């Protein structure tokens, strides 16, 4: 097992954790903040020296991405049927959306500028999950990624998705998922790896 494969599984776990949170918000309007916080923090982590640092550091990333790791393991193994089909759809859609973003340097530059502005505001609040922080990240998603030709269609209970805070959480999770998908690609991850490198990725997850 290579170090690169281990790093790839970290990014993959983050993608699937974002996808699982979007599915949960769409279905019930509720998620555990402990699963969302490391993803939101990762959006603002632009100069990490190591992949693990993006999600809390060597000793924290495994717990911070536990939901995503478990979901990926099921998706790549014989337990795939137990994974919410919407979660799988969102995960693949995040990877596809990031591939569109990679071809838009102007949008990448715009996102970088917006992240800098949001990061400067972080110290004003007691948590990256403060509603103003989530709203700012949601606005960034709306102004950028939601304008691309490919859009992720979130399906669920309209009574939850129409609530402003829930909608903002969904977009923040999607933004974090795209950030993870970018990391996955930068580490050499390919969509076909999810089919033909399943055994290697499962071993790396362990």
TrEMBL record:
<protein>
    <recommendedName>
        <fullName>High frequency lysogenization protein HflD homolog</fullName>
    </recommendedName>
</protein>
<dbReference type="InterPro" id="IPR035932">
    <property type="entry name" value="HflD-like_sf"/>
</dbReference>
<keyword id="KW-1003">Cell membrane</keyword>
<keyword id="KW-0472">Membrane</keyword>
<dbReference type="InterPro" id="IPR007451">
    <property type="entry name" value="HflD"/>
</dbReference>
<comment type="similarity">
    <text>Belongs to the HflD family.</text>
</comment>
<dbReference type="Pfam" id="PF04356">
    <property type="entry name" value="DUF489"/>
</dbReference>
<keyword id="KW-0963">Cytoplasm</keyword>
């Amino acid at each position: 097992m290579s170090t690169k494969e281990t790093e790839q599984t970290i990014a993959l776990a983050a993608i699937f954790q974002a996808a699982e949170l979007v599915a949960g918000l769409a279905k019930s309007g509720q998620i555990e903040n402990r699963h969302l916080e490391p993803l939101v923090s990762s959006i603002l982590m632009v100069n990490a020296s190591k992949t693990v640092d993006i999600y809390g550091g060597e000793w924290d990333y495994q717990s911070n991405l536990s939901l995503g790791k478990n979901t990926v393991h099921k998706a790549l193994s014989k337990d795939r049927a137990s994974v919410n089909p919407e979660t799988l759809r969102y995960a693949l859609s995040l990877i596809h959306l990031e591939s569109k973003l990679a071809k838009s340097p102007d949008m990448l530059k715009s996102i970088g500028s917006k992240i800098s502005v949001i990061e400067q505001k972080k110290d004003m609040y007691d948590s990256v999950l403060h509603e103003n922080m989530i709203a700012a990240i949601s606005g960034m998603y709306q102004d950028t990624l939601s304008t691309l030709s490919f859009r992720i269609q979130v399906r669920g209970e309209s009574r939850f998705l129409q609530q402003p805070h829930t909608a903002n959480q969904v977009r923040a999770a999607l933004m974090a998922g795209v950030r993870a998908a970018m990391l996955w690609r930068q580490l050499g991850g390919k969509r076909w790896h999810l089919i033909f490198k399943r055994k290697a990725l499962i071993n790396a997850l362990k």
